[in-house]
Amino acid sequence: MSWNAEKLKAEDQAGRERGGWGPLRFLWVFGLVIVIYLLAPGPLGKMNPHYPFNRSRTLQSLYTPVNAARAKFACVDRFYNWYVHDVWKVPYYWAEG
Q1: 40-62 pLDDT per residue, tens
Q2: Distance of alpha carbon 73 from its chain centroid, rounded?
Q3: pLDDT at 38 over 80
Q4: Are residues 27 and 46 in the same domain?
Protein backbone atom coordinates (compact mmCIF):
# COMPACT_ATOMS: atom_id res chain seq x y z
CA MET A 1 0.00 0.00 0.00
CA SER A 2 1.33 3.47 -0.84
CA TRP A 3 1.91 6.17 1.71
CA ASN A 4 -1.09 8.24 0.40
CA ALA A 5 -3.45 5.29 0.65
CA GLU A 6 -2.36 4.66 4.24
CA LYS A 7 -2.81 8.35 5.08
CA LEU A 8 -6.32 8.41 3.56
CA LYS A 9 -7.26 5.24 5.41
CA ALA A 10 -6.05 6.72 8.72
CA GLU A 11 -8.00 9.96 8.10
CA ASP A 12 -11.13 7.99 7.24
CA GLN A 13 -10.80 5.93 10.42
CA ALA A 14 -10.30 9.09 12.50
CA GLY A 15 -13.44 10.61 10.92
CA ARG A 16 -15.50 7.56 11.82
CA GLU A 17 -14.30 7.64 15.41
CA ARG A 18 -15.33 11.29 15.82
CA GLY A 19 -18.86 10.56 14.68
CA GLY A 20 -18.79 12.67 11.55
CA TRP A 21 -22.35 14.03 11.86
CA GLY A 22 -21.48 17.71 11.84
CA PRO A 23 -24.52 19.96 11.31
CA LEU A 24 -26.83 16.97 10.86
CA ARG A 25 -26.47 16.12 14.54
CA PHE A 26 -27.58 19.65 15.48
CA LEU A 27 -30.60 19.48 13.16
CA TRP A 28 -31.55 16.02 14.42
CA VAL A 29 -31.35 17.09 18.07
CA PHE A 30 -33.24 20.33 17.34
CA GLY A 31 -36.00 18.39 15.58
CA LEU A 32 -36.22 15.92 18.44
CA VAL A 33 -36.54 18.73 20.99
CA ILE A 34 -39.36 20.31 18.93
CA VAL A 35 -41.25 17.01 18.70
CA ILE A 36 -40.88 16.39 22.45
CA TYR A 37 -42.07 19.94 23.18
CA LEU A 38 -45.13 19.54 20.95
CA LEU A 39 -46.09 16.14 22.36
CA ALA A 40 -45.38 16.84 26.04
CA PRO A 41 -48.90 18.04 27.05
CA GLY A 42 -50.19 14.45 26.90
CA PRO A 43 -47.69 12.98 29.39
CA LEU A 44 -47.84 16.15 31.53
CA GLY A 45 -51.59 15.77 31.88
CA LYS A 46 -51.34 12.05 32.56
CA MET A 47 -48.71 12.51 35.29
CA ASN A 48 -50.82 15.03 37.19
CA PRO A 49 -54.47 15.04 36.09
CA HIS A 50 -55.67 16.78 39.27
CA TYR A 51 -53.70 19.97 38.61
CA PRO A 52 -55.12 21.47 35.41
CA PHE A 53 -52.84 22.87 32.73
CA ASN A 54 -54.62 26.23 32.87
CA ARG A 55 -53.67 26.77 36.54
CA SER A 56 -49.94 26.61 35.91
CA ARG A 57 -48.54 29.94 34.73
CA THR A 58 -45.27 28.30 33.75
CA LEU A 59 -46.97 25.79 31.46
CA GLN A 60 -49.25 28.47 30.05
CA SER A 61 -46.31 30.68 29.13
CA LEU A 62 -44.26 27.78 27.73
CA TYR A 63 -47.15 26.64 25.55
CA THR A 64 -48.38 30.05 24.38
CA PRO A 65 -47.36 29.29 20.75
CA VAL A 66 -49.24 25.96 20.84
CA ASN A 67 -52.32 27.58 22.38
CA ALA A 68 -52.23 30.34 19.77
CA ALA A 69 -52.07 27.73 17.01
CA ARG A 70 -54.96 25.85 18.63
CA ALA A 71 -57.05 29.03 18.67
CA LYS A 72 -56.24 29.91 15.06
CA PHE A 73 -56.31 26.51 13.34
CA ALA A 74 -59.12 24.01 13.89
CA CYS A 75 -56.95 21.09 12.72
CA VAL A 76 -54.35 21.82 15.43
CA ASP A 77 -57.10 22.02 18.05
CA ARG A 78 -58.62 18.73 16.85
CA PHE A 79 -55.18 17.07 16.95
CA TYR A 80 -54.50 18.14 20.53
CA ASN A 81 -58.02 17.18 21.64
CA TRP A 82 -57.49 13.75 20.15
CA TYR A 83 -53.92 13.40 21.39
CA VAL A 84 -54.44 14.59 24.97
CA HIS A 85 -57.93 13.26 25.62
CA ASP A 86 -58.21 10.14 23.48
CA VAL A 87 -54.62 8.87 23.39
CA TRP A 88 -53.50 9.87 26.90
CA LYS A 89 -56.99 9.73 28.50
CA VAL A 90 -56.54 13.05 30.27
CA PRO A 91 -59.83 14.56 31.57
CA TYR A 92 -61.21 17.43 29.48
CA TYR A 93 -61.13 19.91 32.37
CA TRP A 94 -57.35 19.56 32.47
CA ALA A 95 -56.76 21.72 29.39
CA GLU A 96 -59.79 24.01 29.43
CA GLY A 97 -58.97 27.68 29.24
Answers
A1: 988 988 887 676 666 778 888 88
A2: 20
A3: yes
A4: no
